From TrEMBL, chain B:
It comes from Astatotilapia calliptera (Eastern happy). Residues 214-424 form the BAAT/Acyl-CoA thioester hydrolase C-terminal domain. This is Acyl-CoA thioesterase 19. One of its GO terms (molecular function) is fatty acyl-CoA hydrolase activity. The lineage of its organism: Eukaryota, Metazoa, Chordata, Craniata, Vertebrata. Belongs to the C/M/P thioester hydrolase family.
Length: 494, 435
């Protein structure tokens, strides 16, 4: 611009007319360019995002988060998308399609999804419907190993009805939430004493607390997250490993610890100064049910209540002392589908269980809650629940039995609002395999769970009622009927 | 220990909340009809301990819900969902003049809430509670980023919400105590505003050169914010408390550079020498220093320094020229600034000029000067070191705890609505009489 002015100033006089014309044109072009860039800057500074909010932004895993989008246009299609990375680095995502109304907003607590990972009104759908992003590794299951840190979930609002894999849409707004298994003040204590391999979680406060012994299935290892959540709800909780852990004796694929091991674990809780020795329950999932029943009947301890989730009343793999043989040692009841995936359901059908392997349920003296996923393809849960119910009925103990039964639910009934895998890798078997499928892995087929918050509500209420009823009967004072206690408990789900 | 004592269950939900978020405190499984004390304890950053407690009676189901049941004694009474936080007071034996303010906003405020047998009023340290939980209170939501700002000689901190943006911007100013006070900006960022807290009295440049900043300092802050790629440059507001109000009104009306979409002025005044620099304005206040009064407890009362509200237009910001919505928050028991008288005068000036549709006044009887984000304790007086006076004085802020705490909660809620509707909503500037 300046050089043009100088050039014009130094042109010969005769070109005065041309000089001013050129100058005039240059000035016009310059002003036009300025206007354009200013316009672009103004446009970008006018473009403004809507607002996406979540409350609370830091929640426990079993707490509902309310997600809202505001300052959108009317009748505007949007996609809400949740994304998070697992500890293994895999991307998990879920999304849902909504359309704003006259209030130019969306509220996931009351609005209906019309497409995506879930349909209908599902306030927590973005969390329980999380799935591995496309092209991820197969057979993934989301399980938190480090419970002292939260899951960080990024929730974004995208323009239009789209899916995250398309990757084309404009992100309008976002919010980050943390989801925790551990409440503030909960203490995590590694237990490696008396040959026990476990982790103890203590609630904050002086105690003494009621306690839970927390058992998982034959996948092995040490899962802490359910115990961490129990402690966040006021129960001291001890997760114990009984196979597949480096600190346990013997090969990883059999249980080399016996009845004495579980007795020690139970006694560890009893002896803990912050645990009420008279109020200790046991919870077991899958093979853990068998162990739970064994603990209640065979090893000389008296739990206050039992929770059994989708597991067998006995197992041919469990011998007299409580040790197991490997699961592959007896495959006659295995069922394979055409993709080479295994269902263990028939293994645990009561009819396929020798009588001597069934636990002596009639000897149970405490309340027992059995949770059934009716579409469980890993364990014959309904049939086993029937056996247990019948055994207690014949012993005149029906009042001890409670069943929660969920159509369409599968094997892994876990703490709520977390995804469950349809199929997950259970055991890798690199050597030769006589089955027709790929030699790389055996996959355990697990039906997709529709998380049911009513189950969770009942679950917590049941535990609460168990412990409260015990307290009042021990005191011999005012003994409110347990249902009275149910009335004023705020819905954590139900 | 008596068996029936250790079955009481205490829960607080959410256990990790933002500072302005309500929680539900629930006691269950208590003996019906039993007398219990619920107590909150917090140790602040400078090591002082604060406590609050309420006296309750468990109902027929053995339950106490603090959101629904009345406290019949303690540091608060009646049905007060958040009483355990706003009625915090230093524990007996603490020194006087304390004020709870968080400096490090990247960590939470940790509160222990416990239940005790009986209606206790003291000696909690020697009692064993029946139950206790830990609660975290955060100024920063997950994903909010804190960015120190030093360009252009600024001493500031920018808080950006999570997400792509662009976000509306906010310039956040505090008062005569100086320092870089970040917590309100962090909390506003947690609500979706790119907020810049600014130190303008004890800025690094002032400490090094001995010279007070002037208009250009604020205009630089505005420019830095406006030019940030994640800030919507045409939607910037300013919020000031106390002396911060003086700066906010001055910039809103007179700055050629700063074009605000909204302004929030808390506990301040429009009285100042128009065209005065920051230093000149401070000297103007000092000139009237002989109007300082003292309470019976020898606490400094500075509200008269600007009274009576002058009629001379050169001594008041010409609010008739304001072009953006203005929210004034006034504590009627403000003993530090004449905020109520100023608000009335502002209202008159704007009515005469014909722009009163831009004005909203929130006025709270028995609220004091320090109207801050909610659920933090009220300080009726506290020790203060201002930039003008070298030694600390005990300053009377005013306000009665209950009404002041209600004012904080109400004002904050309305302030956030005001900011959202003006900065996100894109409406035509108008007053918010519905607030």
């Amino acid at each position: 611009m300046i050089s043009i002015i100088f050039f014009n100033l130094y042109m010969p006089e005769e070109c005065l007319y041309q000089k001013f014309s050129v100058l005039f044109v240059c000035v016009c072009i310059y002003m036009f360019v300025c206007f354009l860039t200013g316009e672009v800057r103004r446009k970008s500074s006018f473009r403004q995002s809507p607002l996406l909010s979540a409350a609370p932004v830091r929640a426990l895993i079993d707490e509902q988060i309310s997600i809202k989008g505001r300052f959108l246009s009317q009748n505007y299609p949007v996609t809400v998308c949740a994304q998070m990375h697992s500890e293994e680095g895999d991307l998990w995502e879920a999304f849902a399609h909504y359309t704003t109304n006259a209030s130019r907003s969306i509220n996931l607590t009351s609005d209906h999804s019309v497409g995506g990972s879930y349909l209908g009104c599902e306030p927590m759908g973005l969390f329980w419907a999380l799935e591995p992003a496309l092209r991820s590794r197969e057979g993934l299951r989301l399980r938190k190993r480090n419970v002292e840190t939260p899951y960080i979930v990024n929730i974004s609002l995208l323009e239009g009805h789209t899916s995250p894999s398309e990757g084309q849409s404009t992100e309008l707004a976002a919010v980050t939430v943390e989801r925790w298994y551990m409440a503030p003040g909960v203490r995590r204590i590694e237990i490696r004493q008396n040959k026990i391999v476990g982790t103890l979680f203590l609630p904050p406060g002086p105690g003494p607390f009621p306690a839970m012994l927390d058992l998982w299935g034959m996948g092995g290892g040490l899962s802490e997250y359910r115990s961490a959540l129990f402690a966040s709800r006021g129960f001291a909780s001890l997760s114990v490993a009984y196979m597949g852990h480096k600190d346990l004796p013997g090969p990883p694929d059999i249980m080399s610890v016996a009845n004495l091991y579980f007795k020690s674990a139970f006694q560890l809780l009893q002896d803990h100064c912050q645990v009420d020795a008279d109020r200790i329950g046991v919870i077991g999932l899958s093979f853990g049910v068998c162990l739970t029943l064994r603990i209640a009947t065979r090893i000389g301890v008296k739990p206050s209540c039992l929770i059994c989730i989708n597991g067998p009343v006995g197992s041919p793999l469990l011998d007299e002392d409580g040790k197991t043989k490997t699961i592959e040692s007896d495959q006659k009841h295995w069922e394979l589908d055409d993709r080479g995936r295994v269902s263990f359901r028939h293994v645990s059908l009561p009819d396929n269980l020798p009588a001597e392997n069934k636990q002596k349920v009639k000897n149970i003296t405490c309340p027992l809650m059995y949770i059934v996923g009716e579409d469980d393809l890993c364990a014959a849960s309904t049939e086993n629940a029937d056996v247990i119910e019948e055994a207690l009925r014949s012993a005149g103990k029906s009042q001890l039995f409670t069943r929660l039964s969920y159509p369409g639910a599968g094997h892994l009934i876990e703490p709520p609002y977390a995804p469950c895998a349809r199929v997950s890798l259970w055991r890798a078997k690199p050597e030769k395999c006589e089955l027709k499928f790929s030699s790389h892995c055996i996959l355990l087929r697990i039906q997709y769970i529709m998380v049911n918050k009513f189950a969770v509500g009942c679950f917590w209420v049941f535990l609460f009622v168990c412990f409260s009823s015990l307290q009042y009967s021990l005191c011999g004072e005012v003994t409110p009927h347990p249902t009275l206690l149910l009335k004023k408990i705020p819905g954590r789900g139900s | 220990m008596d068996r029936k004592q250790y079955c009481v269950k205490l829960s607080v939900q959410p256990s990790r909340g933002l500072m302005d978020e309500k929680f539900i405190v629930l006691v269950q499984n208590a003996l019906p009809g039993s007398q219990l004390t619920i107590r909150a304890l917090h140790q602040c950053e400078d090591g002082h301990s604060w406590e609050a407690f309420g006296h309750y009676t468990a109902d027929t189901t053995g339950t106490i819900n603090v959101s629904e049941d009345p406290s019949i004694g303690g540091t608060y009474s009646g049905v007060e969902q958040m009483g355990l936080l706003w009625s915090f007071r230093p524990i007996p034996g603490s020194k006087s003049g304390l004020r709870m303010r968080k400096k490090n906003i990247q960590t939470p405020m940790e509160v222990t809430i416990s239940v005790y047998q009986g209606h206790q009023t003291e000696g909690f340290a020697d009692l064993v509670p029946l139950s206790g939980v830990a609660v975290e209170r955060w100024y920063m939501a997950p994903g909010v980023r804190r960015i120190p700002v030093t360009e252009g000689g600024l001493t500031a901190a920018l808080f950006l919400p999570s997400g792509p943006g662009p976000f509306p911007g906010l310039l956040d100013l505090w008062g005569g105590g100086g320092q870089l006070v970040e917590y309100r900006a962090a909390l506003l960022a947690s609500h979706g505003f790119a907020s810049m807290a600014i130190d303008y009295l004890t800025a690094k440049i002032t400490m090094e050169t001995g010279k007070m900043v002037d208009n250009q300092y604020f205009e630089t802050a505005y420019r830095v914010l406006q030019q940030h790629p994640q800030v919507c440059g045409s939607k910037i507001a300013m919020i000031g408390l106390s002396f911060g109000t003086s700066i906010t009104l001055k910039m809103a009306v007179y700055s050629e550079v700063i074009k605000l979409s909204a302004a929030v002025c808390i506990s301040g005044s429009h009285v100042q020498p128009v065209d005065g620099s920051v230093e000149e304005i401070l000297r103007f206040f000092q000139k009237n220093g002989e109007k300082t009064r003292f309470s019976e407890k020898n606490e400094v009362i500075w509200r008269d320094l600007l009274l009576p509200i002058p009629t001379d237009p050169s001594l008041k910001v010409n609010v008739g020229r304001l072009q953006c919505p203005l929210l004034l928050v006034v504590g009627e028991d403000d003993q530090n600034w004449p905020s109520q008288e100023s608000a009335l005068d502002i209202k008159e000036m704007m009515a005469r000029a014909g722009n009163s549709h831009l004005l909203t006044v929130l006025s709270y009887p028995n609220a004091g000067h320090l109207i801050e984000p909610p659920y933090t304790p009220h300080a009726r007086s506290s020790t203060l070191k201002t930039v003008e006076i070298e030694e600390k004085v005990m300053c009377l802020w005013g306000g009665q705890t209950v009404e002041h705490s209600r004012a904080q909660e109400d004002a904050w809620k309305k302030m956030v609505v005001f900011l959202k509707e003006n900065l996100y909503g894109g409406r035509n500037p108008t007053s918010f009489s519905h607030l």
